[in-house]
Amino acid sequence: MELDKVGIDLGKTVFHLVALNRAGETVVRKKFSRSQLLRFTANVQVWMMGMEACGGAHYLGRALREQGHDVRLMPAQYVKPFVKTNKNDYIDAEAIAEALDRPRMRYVPIKSDDQLDMQSLHRVRSRWVKSRTSLVNQIRGLLLERGITIRKGRRHAEATLPAVLEDAEINLSGTLRFMLAQLLSELRQLTSQIVEIDQTIQRGADEQEACQRLMAIPGVGPITATAIVAAIGNGAEFRKGRSFSAWLGLVPGEYTTGGKQKLLGISKRRARSHLHSTA
């Protein structure tokens, strides 16, 4: 079976496929499991396949490329304008197929296993760092209720809390001392885990030439370098440096109407979310 464009709407277990012919008419509308989808695509000839860049898209994209298909991943926000009337899975798949060959469409490179591994490390590290910060704040809050003040910062908590627990003159109940000891043990465990994952990220940065080139830039260390390489690979999707800056959110937003230009602010949060996201 020869088809022109195929759009696949991804789910956790169910996948909806819509295929268009050269005239843009829908010729196939089917629902598959993952294994059924790969069996179907193995027996068809398609000019181009498309999916939204979301969870599971990189794995499926690599599997379809191994079958010889030209697979493109697109950001979901660029597909949304092609959704007609109401929304369902088949309409989404049709919108993906129609958006595929637009001249100004932007695509997301399919990530390798190494890139996905590094992104997984960064996501786990981010969660551990947030948990550690929350834990330190909880310790400081509990001690503040007993009139004991600890300076801000994890290292001050780690240095002060053992002395507090060992000082018999401080009027703390046995229950609170036991709980603080447990929290200190948890804090040390989280710190040890973060140190280990930082070492893993450092080794990954040392093994990749692209990371080493990035770390030659003042202020860029292994965390930032590996996050960038894991997110964009060699950066070939960006035609110029300004495009990369815009993707990071380091150029002002724009709202221009009626010939009046208005430049908006720059959000650092957007840059951080791009580096630690899955697309």
Compile the SSE list and pairings.
Elements: E1 2-9, E2 15-20, E3 26-32, H1 34-41, E4 45-52, H2 57-66, E5 71-74, H3 76-79, H4 89-99, H5 113-144, H6 154-166, H7 174-207, H8 209-215, H9 222-232, H10 241-248, H11 268-275
Parallel strand pairs: 1-4, 4-5
Antiparallel strand pairs: 1-2, 2-3
Helix pairs in contact: 5-7, 5-9, 6-7, 7-8, 7-9, 8-9
Keywords:
single chain, 279 residues, alpha/beta, Nucleotidyltransferase, domain 5, 3 domains, five-stranded mixed sheet, 5 strands
Brief digest:
Helices cover 52% and strands 12% of the residues. The chain has 279 residues and is an alpha/beta fold.
**CATH fold-level name of the largest domain:** Nucleotidyltransferase, domain 5
Low-confidence stretches: none
Q: Please state roughly what percent of the residues sit in beta strands, choosing from under 5%, 5-15%, 15-25%, 25-35%, 35-45% or over 45%.
A: 5-15%
Return the structural class. alpha/beta
Can you tell me the number of structural domains?
3
Strand order of the largest sheet: 3-2-1-4-5
Any idea what the shape is?
Answer: elongated
- Gyration radius (Cα, Å) is 25 Å
CATH architecture of the largest domain: 2-Layer Sandwich
